[in-house]
Specification:
Blueprint: E1 3-4, E2 18-20, E3 25-28, E4 34-35, E5 39-40, E6 46-48, E7 52-60, E8 64-76, E9 83-88, E10 91-96, E11 102-110, E12 113-121, E13 130-140, E14 144-146, H1 151-169, E15 171-177, E16 186-194, E17 197-202, H2 208-211, H3 222-233, E18 236-239, H4 245-248, H5 258-269, E19 273-280, H6 287-297, H7 301-318, H8 328-332, E20 335-341, H9 349-372, E21 378-383, H10 403-412, E22 423-429, H11 446-457, E23 463-469, E24 473-474, E25 477-478, H12 481-496, E26 501-506, H13 529-540, E27 546-549, E28 555-561, E29 563-569, E30 572-578, E31 584-586, H14 605-614, H15 636-645, H16 662-672
Parallel strand pairs: 15-31, 17-18, 17-26, 18-19, 19-20, 20-21, 21-22, 22-23, 23-26
Antiparallel strand pairs: 1-3, 2-14, 3-13, 4-7, 5-6, 6-13, 7-12, 7-14, 8-11, 8-13, 9-10, 9-12, 15-28, 16-27, 16-29, 24-25, 29-30
Helix pairs in contact: 1-11, 1-12, 6-7, 7-9, 12-13, 15-16
InterPro entries: Dockerin_1_rpt, Dockerin_dom_sf, EF_Hand_1_Ca_BS, GH, GH10, GH10_dom
Enzyme class: hydrolase
Protein name: Endo-1,4-beta-xylanase A
Length: about 700
């Protein structure tokens, strides 16, 4: 039975199916409209018999607390209880669920907006051995709940959820201390790149037409226009073909990575990230590899062993250290993401030869090489037809949540090698046909995107939309520019608005190759309708230049989208990473004078008073207040700087801090008889974040 308290006159409710309430509404487990799998267990119960989730949308008109409670019980065939998670935005609370029905809950402090609550079963040690049954989901504090299977309503809900996440969780503020900067000094803060990767590909088999060195005065060529446009609006590059096996080792034992290196150099010169595609695939391989594959598929064990060794040899020059290629380790450290085996299940060559165990070993060997190179590259799977069709490539059955893909990754990570897959790659050569067309059940659908993204998020790994494009025609229906722009912007919003998502790469042609009404630019490099919509979002998600003033406490407040920023003061430029969870930065300027605790430009007796009254403080921003050595605390070591530089001003040389001596003992005697205050930075307990 449902139970809720109505609030009359509430203006803001979700679209159809919304119920306004103040205290709480309980939805029965078998009523929840969003269910990745499981079965109706009778009465009010829904049972997840393998990893997956149930959930619903809700809104919050004003910022405040929301409490989510789940009535649940579990089963297990060993000593390990099932693990349940309650996820909202980027906050995840986890619980071990017992075998008797009980209530599990978590409170979240949330900004106003639209949210999706995901109650998940996550058995990372292997599927099938534990179950989770949900009898009810209660949301207290929400303004309204939308629990419906209506596609139109859920598309609007999904986009509203994404927009809320972008507004509230993709940006924030931080304090920066500028030791040595005079109060009132002007500071310019500029965004250099977004933390999220908005990328595109470098097409073809040669890098020179795109990223090759420009000739003097070369401005109007397609190469020059590409090098001007792409770094302006993108911050990640991926080779479409140049990283594949055939172009990089057509002759066995003679790797040729020059084109990849050219793209790496261009990316580094333009502060762009790099995504590598791909170590192995069922296509575009050298003739000698194809021969091994044919024989291995025919059952030749020696060919299988030789193919395995060929993959190991490729890993050595493609990723790791230790062979004759002296650049491989450096190269690996520039790979933010790497497709290890591309389209493993839909192009099943390597899967049919090696199976789960052998494929997992290839990922393990790649991970070993990445670790040896000192890199932190994400090792990713990469499959297509997840958002549009999501058909299971192993069974052929329809699966709108793409459970098969999540289960495939879980299987690889449970082969005894540890977690070898560390990122989830999703391709989306989307079907832009409008609703009502013959294929409208499989066309672009933000609601289905959220279904799949929520399901992949159970893995707890970063998610990348690796290859996105909008065809000019799909299933006999021509794509209008307006429809293409709509699909573009909705997909960008859904990816940027998903907590686990980290990258999205555009997979389309650039002039002089074929362009059309669904690409970003036309043959003259003028923005199309799609391009105008794309650029508008990129500009919206780029923080404007900030002109700030150093406060009396030597601080400035930085606010904007998370990413890399440059801070300019008095001709000095600092680069900082403004990231979620990083609340403070310390930028030591050239005018920093250790011991000048009141920042008046002179180390004198007044500074001793500041130190004395601050002694014992902890949790400070480095170099702020009376912290001269940048350890975030005020101790006797900071007093040593005051002693060493006493009488100094910004116009006189500074000395290093001496070893503590009798003068410190004298200061200590002054201190113990003097009044003093202590400030400790208090952090409330919070829900664990998964990002």
């Amino acid at each position: 039975m449902r139970s809720w308290t109505m609030r009359l006159g509430l203006a803001a409710v979700l679209l159809g199916g919304a119920i306004s309430q103040t205290h709480g509404q309980t939805l029965d487990g078998d009523e929840l409209a969003h269910r990745s799998g499981g079965y109706d267990a009778g009465a009010v119960r829904w049972t997840l018999d393998k990893n997956g989730y149930v959930g619903t949308y809700f809104t919050l008109d004003e910022a405040g607390p929301v409490t989510i409670k789940v009535d649940a019980l579990g089963t297990t065939n060993d000593a390990t209880l099932p693990m349940m998670g309650i996820a909202v935005a980027d906050q995840l609370a986890t619980f071990e669920v017992g075998t008797s029905l009980a209530e599990y809950g978590q409170s979240y402090e949330l900004p106003a907006g639209t949210y999706f609550v995901r109650t998940e079963l996550s058995n990372h040690s292997g599927p099938g051995s534990r179950t989770l049954s949900v009898d009810g989901l209660t949301i207290e504090g929400a303004s309204s709940i939308s629990n419906t299977s209506n596609r139109t309503v859920n598309e609007a809900n999904a986009l509203a959820m994404a927009d809320s996440y972008i507004e509230n969780f993709r940006q924030g503020s931080a304090t920066a201390a500028l030791p040595g900067a005079a109060p009132g000094s002007n500071v310019t803060v500029r965004m250099r790149r977004n933390e999220f990767n908005f990328g595109t590909y470098v097409t073809g088999f040669s890098a020179d037409p795109w990223v090759g060195d420009l000739s003097p005065g070369e401005t109007a060529t397609d190469r020059a226009r590409y090098q001007e446009f792409v770094p302006q609006y993108f911050n990640m590059l991926v080779p479409s073909n140049m990283g594949k096996w055939q172009p990089t080792e057509n002759s066995e034992g003679s790797p040729q990575m020059g084109n990849v290196d050219a793209i790496l150099d261009f990316a580094a010169d333009h502060n762009m990230a790099f995504r590598q595609h791909n170590l192995a695939w069922g296509h575009q391989q050298p003739w000698w590899v194809n021969n091994l594959i044919d024989d291995a598929l025919a059952g030749d064990p020696q060919a299988k062993a030789d193919l395995r060794q060929a993959v190991i040899d490729r890993i050595a020059y493609y990723v790791g250290d230790g062979d004759n290629d002296q650049h491989d380790g450096d190269r690996a450290r520039q790979y933010e993401e790497l497709d290890v085996i591309n389209e493993l299940l839909r192009e099943k060559t390597y899967y049919d030869i090696f199976g789960d165990q052998g494929v997992a070993e290839i990922y393990k060997l790649t991970k070993d090489a990445v670790d040896a190179a000192g890199a932190d590259t994400l090792l990713m799977t990469n499959e297509y037809n997840l958002f549009n069709f999501a058909g299971n490539p192993l069974t052929g059955g329809s699966d709108h949540y793409a459970n098969w893909y999540r289960e495939h990754i879980e299987t690889l990570n449970n082969q005894g090698f540890g977690q070898v897959v560390t990122g989830v790659g999703i391709q989306a050569q989307t079907n832009p046909a409008p609703d009502g067309s013959p294929t409208s059940g499989q066309n672009h659908n933000p609601s289905r995107m959220n279904q799949v993204l929520q399901n992949m998020s159970i893995l707890g790994m970063p998610i990348t939309l690796t290859e996105f494009s909008v065809p000019s025609e799909a299933f006999g229906v021509e794509t209008t520019p307006e429809r293409a722009a709509e699909v573009y912007t909705e997909t960008l919003r859904m990816m940027f608005g998903t907590a686990q998502a980290r990258s999205m790469l555009i997979w389309e042609e650039w002039p002089p190759n074929s362009t059309n009404q669904t690409t970003i630019v036309d043959e003259n490099w003028d923005l199309t309708v799609v391009g105008e919509a794309f650029v508008a979002l990129m500009e919206q998600w780029t923080t404007d230049e900030q002109l700030l003033t150093v406060g009396p406490d030597g601080m400035i407040e930085i606010a904007g989208f998370y990413g890399e920023y440059e801070v300019v003061i008095d001709g000095e430029t600092f680069v900082i990473d403004h990231l979620k969870g990083v609340e403070t930065h310390s930028l030591v300027t050239a005018d920093f004078l250790p011991g000048d605790f009141n920042t008046d430009g002179v180390v004198d007796a007044a500074d001793f008073t500041v130190w004395r009254d601050s002694l014992g403080q902890t949790g400070l921003i480095a170099y702020s207040g009376a912290d001269s050595n940048g350890d975030g605390e005020v101790t006797l070591a900071d007093y040593d700087y005051w002693v060493s530089n006493f009488g100094m001003s910004l116009s006189t040389p500074q000395t290093s801090a001496p070893e503590p001596g009798s003068v410190v003992l004298f200061a200590w005697s002054l201190f113990i008889s003097a009044p003093r205050g202590q400030r400790r930075k208090w952090r409330p307990a919070c829900v664990s974040a998964r990002l």
